[in-house]
Amino acid sequence: MMSKDPRGGAVRCRSVDGSLRRENAESVACADSQTAGSSELHSALLHRPWTSVELMVSSDIACTSAVGLRRSRDTEDTSFDNRLPKDYKDTEKYVQSFRYDLILKAGLDMARNKVEDAFYGSRLRLNGLKLIKKSKTVKVGDTLDFILGEDKEIDSVNLKRVIFKKVIGETRDADKYKVILRTWKNLQLPKNDVYKD
Length: 197
Prior knowledge:
Layout: E1 2-4, E2 10-14, E3 20-24, H1 39-46, H2 52-76, E4 89-95, H3 100-108, H4 112-120, E5 124-126, E6 129-130, E7 143-151, E8 156-170, E9 177-190, H5 191-194
Antiparallel strand pairs: 1-2, 2-3, 4-9, 5-6, 5-7, 7-8, 8-9
């Protein structure tokens, strides 16, 4: 939280840990440079004249935005698969496109013909729904399941799973994308957690 310092010439920013720190008014940025993540906002603040009221309000927005960014980074990894076992593996892969079959093949290091056999055997799922088209484009956050079988006695499903975590970049000729995929090679989950249709 940013406010006018009664001693003049500075503003005060309450950091994430609750402590107050003083900053020069010209910087109009949150005291903790690691917390300040909104460069566009800070740049806009620095390149125009401000009244004292505008300065206080805009600085408050900048610090609030920065704290929000810090918190979103801290919780980013737990927003995925927080009810799943922790024996996953995150790997960087290069893919030509974001087609379902290419992402699954890359994540599981599986031959393409096995992916095709699973598709025609109705054993592929996207976010819990039966895959209708193996060339369907997937996006960050999507869950791709390769069903291995069912245990009817305990009403569970055995599967391999890939979660599309992140796009890092692309190659210079833009024909391949570098992605991060989170994979489980052997999962057993309740049927209700796997099938959403």
